[in-house]
Amino acid sequence: MDPDICKGCIKIEVARLAIGMQIEALDRPWEETTFSFREFRIRREEELRLLRENCVYAWVEVASASGAHGLSLDIPVECATECAALAEPVDFNVEMAQAQLAWGSARAQSWRILEAVEMGEPIQVGVVKAVVKDCVDSILRNPSALLWLTRIKFQDDYTAEHSLRVAMLSIALGRELGLPPSELEEIGVGAMLHDVGKLKVPDAILNKPSALSEQEYAIMKSHPMEGYTLLTSQAGVPLAALDVVLSHHERVDGAGYPRGLSAEEIPFYARIVAVTDAYDAISSDRVYSKGRSTLESLRILFKAANSHFDEQIVSAFVRMIGLYPSGEIVEMTNDEVAIILGAPACNRLKPRLLRVLGADKRRCPEKLIDLAGSTFDAMGRPYAIRQVCSSGAFGVDIEAYRRRGLIQINGG
User: Which PROSITE patterns does the UniProt record give (predicted)?
Assistant: First the structure.
């Protein structure tokens, strides 16, 4: 097929196709293939297999083809830099007001869920669905606002805060994969509820700072089934959400639990939440470990792709988060500390920064730094990033700077 006929599409080898891509045309007539339908979004590995059996090339909608050429790299640099950004029609600073309202409601509900389980009361599933829908709406307008809020981590009940962040990350990842709003809502509900079974695990095990014994680990591994059993008695919980609760600790190599499912046996939404669940756990402070930086966390996920996690989903997550996401704290080669404001789509490795601490790690006059330009420090040295730091490093409160109007993030 002539690519000019398929406007808004790009021609891609079928070996480079990924889940979430919208197929618009093939290199042969549809009638000559085994497909009974035309123009579809790839949802399953089985569809990828059929595409590879039937043709050599396919024409893919540009907006759904983000990062197609970075899927098989050993490190996630190109996964994060070669993508064509999805449209973000609402300005970050405008959307933030709505995002904060949605976040506040969802945060309150995540606490109510835990309280209901502890008290033996029914979960208000209808309310959960309503707050998740507000979050989906915000993420569809501009995901950067709610993703920014996931970086502000509180030292409160880990299960409640973690479930909230995993829900936001899962909705945004579903958007990156091209899922429609109704499916994003189901993923969000499942993610909000994914760890309710941990309320059946003793605090002494949940909060143990040292390694769990074999018996303790067996109890910990019971939480997906405990959550599933609890929620099957609740009216209105979507079946897809139940899949997430039961299967978010399954692994593509079959080494997960509780059922030892592998690859395509694991429900698609559960594979999504498995990635976001692991990412938030790795990047958060726990009783037994300090949170890793975004870059370290992404590298850990990427190394586990195709063993623990679905490779295509991990690749999409890396593209979505990026190597230098807004709100990340970085230390410069001159020892100064800055907050990442974002990066232009054409150069994701050269972000814009706000310098907030001097080389002595004390507050100093803020300074805008554009690594894509020629910006130098007081000694005439060009600015460069030494390391990406974990959330809250050096006591930097990113939200305090945003509230002061010093952080202006533009879509890039």
Answer: HD, HD_GYP
